[in-house]
Amino acid sequence: MQEKIKAYAQEHLPQMLDDIKKLVAVRSIKGEAKPGMPFGKGPAEALYCMEDIAKSHGFSTKKFDGYMMTVNLNDYQDELGILCHLDIVHEGSGWSSPPFEMTIREGKIYGRGVADNKGPAIAALYALKCVRDLGVPLRKNVRLMLGTDEESGMGDLPEYFKREAPPTYNISPDAAFPIYNIEKGRFGPNFSAYFDEDLSLPRICSISGGHATNIVPEEAEALIEGLDAEAIEPLIIKTSEKTGVLFSLEQKDEKLLIKALGTSSHAAYPGDGNNAITGLIELLTAILDFKGKGVSMLKAVNKLLPHGDWRGENIGICMEDELSGILTCNLGIFSYTPTSITGRIDIRSPICSNEENCSKIMEKSFAKEGFALDKTDMILPHYVPEELPFIQTLKRVFHECTGLPGDCIAMGGGTYVHGIPNSVAFGAAFPDTETYAHSADEYAVITELEACVSIFANVIIEMCQ
Q1: Which of 132, 147, 192, 285 is disulfide-compatible with 156, CB 3.0–4.6 A?
Q2: Which 3 state secondary structure label does DSSP give 211?
Q3: Which one-letter DSSP state was computed for residue 355?
């Protein structure tokens, strides 16, 4: 059966890539809610596209008011669930090929969503198709669940679980292999401060940066009035050398536009990126000619969240434990106007974190500098013991299919399975493969997606026979 499954995956690979291409063409970024489209037109179109793909392979589907869609292999009791999402993060800039036209180069497919998470979703569908077409007898059902809001708050899952309970065991191929049985906790507060406008020149008219809190922002910009470009060029060079952030100047309607270019990465791994917002703030706070309350508050932001401090040391919440690692902190969205500063932070906290040593400390640190912090509830860490028979099955199947060790790992990212009992992230990238999810030139390795079909099909058989 193992050889039959591998042969099936190989034979159907061209068709699978065509289906991924169809999904990638949909710019499924969260937008304005509309009737039947709770997360906007893009995610809804991705759901319709996936429905057409599933039906073209002979599956019946069920939609849930535009929040999610399911594909069931049979009518038996639900034993295994596979949770994937069809929404994506903003494409950003710096792509070598169009982000919504899937491109094949050197054994990889490129495009926004090929790895996170449209490619794995199609691979999971083909695993169901493989088990069905090979006529493997099952006594239980596997349910493929496809959501549309994983990247922007997971507002789809609560609505879906009002209607259907999750299967007994669940996997989400929205990370990497082998098995992520620990997902860090999350805390994503907004901070704000308001002040009177100061018209003294030079002054900062605006600062903006970031599209989502779960991405290290690669771009930010500031509009300045009454400042000479030549006077700050030496400071720009110095700040760029210090931070690694690149700056450019442009004259715009008698004002000076400063653009900052860093490097994006997933907010769970902010050390892999270079935050353009904090780099720009460091530059602006080093310009001594600015005056007013707003500039004082901007300096306070730089004090709390200095460039390069992605561990929360200046806030006072740096911590780690042996199982889940270190706390991470990302300033993902920021806005400055002549009368306000607002921002949002993404914090991934280890198992040792709680409200006393994390959220309450943070509230005090920001209040001391004059900022209000939203009372945002912490999402506690997710942990499934390695000894669970379900985890042992995943370990064994992964090893038998790949020859690689099926280790359990902790991660900073959060997936759909967070908080669902007996559920872990499992795949879809292989160890040491950097897919650049949330960055330019996101890719998936074609042979790895092909292997995913075999791995998932074997898991289905082991769990549902």
Answers
A1: 147
A2: coil
A3: I
Q: What is the pTM of this model?
A: 0.76
The DSSP letter of residue 168 is S
Q: Are 27 and 125 a contacting pair, CB within 8 Å?
A: no
Tokens 């640190």 sit on residue: 365
Name the residues annotated as catalytic.
87, 150
Specify whether the backbone of 231 is left (phi greater than 0), alpha (psi in -120 to 50) or beta. Answer: alpha
* Whether the Cβ atoms of residue 17 and residue 107 lie closer than 8 Å to each other: no
- Rounded to whole angstroms, the Cα distance separating 465 from 461 reads 5
Mean predicted confidence (pLDDT) in 161-181: 96
Kindly report, residue by residue over 309-330, the tens digit of the pLDDT. Answer: 999 999 999 999 988 999 999 9
End-to-end CA distance of the chain: 13
Cα separations in angstroms, 156 against 45, 213, 295, 420, 429: 15, 18, 40, 14, 24
The answer to whether 376 touches 358, Cβ cutoff 8 Å, is no
Provide the H-helix boundaries in 148-252: 156-161, 229-243
Yes or no: say if 115 and 146 are a contact pair by the CB < 8 Å rule: no
Cβ pair 112, 147 in contact under 8 A: no
Distance CA 335, CA 292 (A): 17
Distance CA 232, CA 228 (A): 7
Length of the chain: 465
Encode pLDDT of 337-371 as tens digits: 999 999 999 999 999 998 899 999 999 999 999 99
**Torsion on CA atoms 114, 118, 121, 122, rounded to nearest 10:** -70
CB 270 within 8 A of CB 329: yes
Q: Give the mean model confidence (pLDDT) for residues 117-139.
A: 98
Tally Cβ neighbours within 10 Å of residue 183. Answer: 29
The alpha carbon torsion through 208, 440, 117, 176 (nearest 10 deg) reads -110
* Mean pLDDT computed over every residue of the chain: 95
Dump strand ranges (E) for 28-178. 61-64, 68-72, 78-85, 103-105, 108-110, 141-147, 169-172, 175-176
In sequence order, which residues have a C-beta less than 8 Å from that of residue 33 and are 6 or more positions away?
A: 39, 40
